[in-house]
Automatic annotation (TrEMBL):
<keyword id="KW-0663">Pyridoxal phosphate</keyword>
<protein>
    <recommendedName>
        <fullName>Aminotransferase</fullName>
        <ecNumber>2.6.1.-</ecNumber>
    </recommendedName>
</protein>
<dbReference type="InterPro" id="IPR015421">
    <property type="entry name" value="PyrdxlP-dep_Trfase_major"/>
</dbReference>
<dbReference type="GO" id="GO:0008483">
    <property type="term" value="F:transaminase activity"/>
</dbReference>
<comment type="subunit">
    <text>Homodimer.</text>
</comment>
<dbReference type="InterPro" id="IPR015424">
    <property type="entry name" value="PyrdxlP-dep_Trfase"/>
</dbReference>
<dbReference type="GO" id="GO:0006520">
    <property type="term" value="P:amino acid metabolic process"/>
</dbReference>
<dbReference type="InterPro" id="IPR004838">
    <property type="entry name" value="NHTrfase_class1_PyrdxlP-BS"/>
</dbReference>
<keyword id="KW-0032">Aminotransferase</keyword>
<dbReference type="InterPro" id="IPR050596">
    <property type="entry name" value="AspAT/PAT-like"/>
</dbReference>
<keyword id="KW-0808">Transferase</keyword>
<comment type="similarity">
    <text>Belongs to the class-I pyridoxal-phosphate-dependent aminotransferase family.</text>
</comment>
<dbReference type="InterPro" id="IPR004839">
    <property type="entry name" value="Aminotransferase_I/II_large"/>
</dbReference>
<dbReference type="Pfam" id="PF00155">
    <property type="entry name" value="Aminotran_1_2"/>
</dbReference>
<dbReference type="GO" id="GO:0030170">
    <property type="term" value="F:pyridoxal phosphate binding"/>
</dbReference>
<feature type="domain" description="Aminotransferase class I/classII large">
    <location>
        <begin position="11"/>
        <end position="358"/>
    </location>
</feature>
<dbReference type="InterPro" id="IPR015422">
    <property type="entry name" value="PyrdxlP-dep_Trfase_small"/>
</dbReference>
Length: 366
């Protein structure tokens, strides 16, 4: 859809994009620039700058109830590298990585890179793809090395129920497996504060927490994330990353320190904008005949059921070519919900209103 959109002449409302539409706040850019001028242009230690690990450790504890000493934190090249390293560290050849579907596609590639097997466990559409721990636990076997829980979810915008997450962690511990908690959207939840999975389980040593500055702090291009968890696993991770990226970019680590420790007002403004858009998106979905979606509880996605018996790619192409609005077809997010369309509300209120007018007209015509 991205390529089609690039080739399309005329005004398009782009609602397929998975990154904040905000630029990184000035004070973060200034802090990074002055750090670079002061000499932060070299490698750091493999695990990251001590001040950056401390800032991440404090943020995890203060905002999400997840307790890790700074030496149980590795600073990574985005959440993406943290996930890749977590999968490499936990999944051996022919072992299984389980992921509830619908799912962000990169986990499958990461399992393949580890010579492991990827298995999507479909969650029920009737409950809006809420996490059903029993389904995940039934799919576990002695071959299960790790389970990824993505909360808030990309693509559904759901926040998983703590009791369901707890049950999955418990079963993973029984199988001597890990839960990789992909919490890169955790700061963006709209129905009250949400703790990290490691905060409310009896087996935090079986949880590897992945976080990132990308979404919450509008810093996708800085490529700065983290992996936090059991020291023995992190030792393996640091050994692997010595031969891959060596360390996260020094200047981006300084940017992260500023984002995490300095005034939060610019990020709170972004949060409030996302919150307003979430309300608008939920209202517009309710008001359009035949259209439905689980109410987005976090991240900036709504997973639309267009109520049309046709491949989502065809519907998405129709909406793009004839009505100038771009959505991501559900087939991109595993086998669970191929007929759906993911809408990103990382766009202004005016453009979202315009986008929904176009979706309404396009679906009625289809
Ligand atoms: N996890 C999920 C669910 C995502 O949607 C993304 C990015 O879109 C990432 C992880 C990785 O983000 P980053 O590497 O920018 O931190």
């Amino acid at each position: 859809m991205f390529d089609l959109a690039q080739r399309h002449d005329g005004d398009l409302v782009r609602l397929e994009v998975g990154e904040p539409d905000f630029d990184t706040p000035e004070h973060v850019i200034d802090a990074a620039a002055s750090a670079a001028r002061d000499g932060a242009t070299h490698y750091t230690s493999n695990a990251g700058l001590p001040e950056c690990r401390r800032a991440i450790s404090d943020t995890l504890a203060d905002e999400y109830g997840v307790e890790h000493d700074p030496d149980e934190v590795v600073v990574t090249v985005g959440g993406m590298e943290a996930l890749h390293l977590a999968v490499l560290a936990t999944v051996s050849p022919d072992e299984e990585l389980l992921v509830p579907g619908p799912t962000w596609p990169n986990y499958e590639t990461q399992a393949t890179l580890a010579d492991g097997r990827f298995r999507e466990v479909p969650m029920p559409a009737e409950t809006g793809f809420a996490l059903d721990a029993d389904r995940v636990i039934d799919a576990m076997s002695d071959d299960t090395a790790a389970v990824v829980l993505t909360t808030p979810s990309n693509p559904t915008g759901r926040v998983f129920d703590p009791d369901e997450c707890r049950a999955v962690v418990e079963a993973a511990a029984d199988h001597d497996a890990y839960v990789i908690a992909d919490e890169v959207y955790l700061g963006l939840t709209y129905d009250g504060p949400v703790e990290g999975i490691a905060a409310y389980t009896d087996h935090p040593d079986h949880v590897l927490t992945v976080g990132s500055c990308s979404k919450r702090y509008a810093m996708t291009g800085w490529r700065l994330g983290w992996l936090a968890g059991d020291r023995h696993v992190l030792d393996e991770v640091v050994t692997v990353r010595e031969s891959t990226t060596a360390c996260a970019p020094s200047v981006s680590q300084h940017a992260a320190i500023a984002a995490l420790t300095r005034p939060q007002e610019p990020f709170q403004e972004m949060y409030r904008a996302f919150e307003e858009r979430r309300d608008l998106v939920a209202d517009r979905i309710d008001a359009i005949d035949g259209l439905s979606a689980p109410r987005p509880e976090g991240a900036f996605y709504a997973f639309l059921d267009p109520g049309i018996d046709a491949p989502a790619v065809d519907v998405a192409k129709h909406l793009l070519r004839e009505h100038g609005v771009v959505l991501a077809p559900g087939d991109g997010f595993g086998d669970t919900a191929p007929g759906r369309l993911r809408l990103s509300f990382a766009n202004s209120v005016d453009r979202l209103e315009e986008g929904f007018d176009r979706i309404e007209a396009g679906l009625a015509e289809y």
